[in-house]
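Q: What changes when iron/sulfur cluster is included in the input?
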Amino acid sequence: MASQISTRQTAASDQFDRPLRDLRISVTDRCNFRCPYCMPAEIYGERYEFLPRDELLTFEEIARLTGIFVDLGVTKARLTGGEPLIRADVTRLIRMLTPFNALADLTMTTNGYLLARFAQELKEAGLGRITVSLDSLDDEVFRSMNGRNFDTAPVLEGIAAAEKAGFSPIKINAVVQKGVNDHTIVDLARHFKGTGHIVRFIEFMDVGTLNHWNMSQVMPAAEIVRMICEEMPIEPVEPNYKGEVARRWRYVDGDGEIGIIASVSEPFCGACTRARLSTDGRLVTCLFAAGGTDLRGPMRGGADDDELKKLIAGVWSDRRDRYSMDRSTLGDGDGATRSRIEMYQIGG
Ligand code: SF4
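A: The predicted holo structure follows.
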């Protein structure tokens, strides 16, 4: 097992001089929601066969690989899915990751539906931060966007429980889809204004191959800012660190801030330091990648840590991904038909 004391040798930077700093870990490909932009219900029905258990990375394998990534320079790990709280006993995994001294930031993205039940346990296990996906406060809109007719109440209860457990600020992620929920984003901002929690509006992206993405459905960041500013004036703020995904905007009256993740209108690939570990153990170097490098096979085949480290460092140093920056130079057709790994297998 990679040492939990520092034997760090940072991986070489990639082809655009970006270091490896963040690891997104998909702990399951399953979810209790059926968001049309990620896992449409008409495809992922009751009979859909998700990955069999033996194809999922075990917690021990995830911890071992995380240790190796930490040795290569990773300081932030995010647990995602699918829905990470669906994976049984996920707090055991958190306890296995917290001893990595250099892992300064251990966080999770959840849809919040089960959060009220687990918030205290997650905190006690050592989880540092939590992000909750909540696309709208309007129940009718929310029901259509989660594909399961679930109301917002359980998610809001989850956020309240996480706050009570000591998570603060909590980040609230909302995908903004024109003609679907854009008319409700000001309500969402107003609801969390002054609470200390940070709503982050995400431009609708052409992730995966199933969401019928089209530029006309994208509400650009500038428009989101204009809509919020009309009622609650905001001004830009410097990023907390280089490579921060969300652009920060604070309320002029001092009542906190929001974020905007503008992958389409203001791509940020230039500072992207994110690697992804898919549910079945592939190293994926971009959210829009068509494939990844299998780590599970070599690991189960007896590769030692140094061999795995060389493999990961090699993939990273060859990395040339910058899809969002290139998107605009791609023809509409080309962009839409590219093969891509589905988002629920690698975490957003
Ligand atoms: S599109 Fe790929 S390279 Fe660009 S920011 Fe997203 S994950 Fe990074």
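Observations recorded in class: Residues 59-71 form the longest helix (13 residues).
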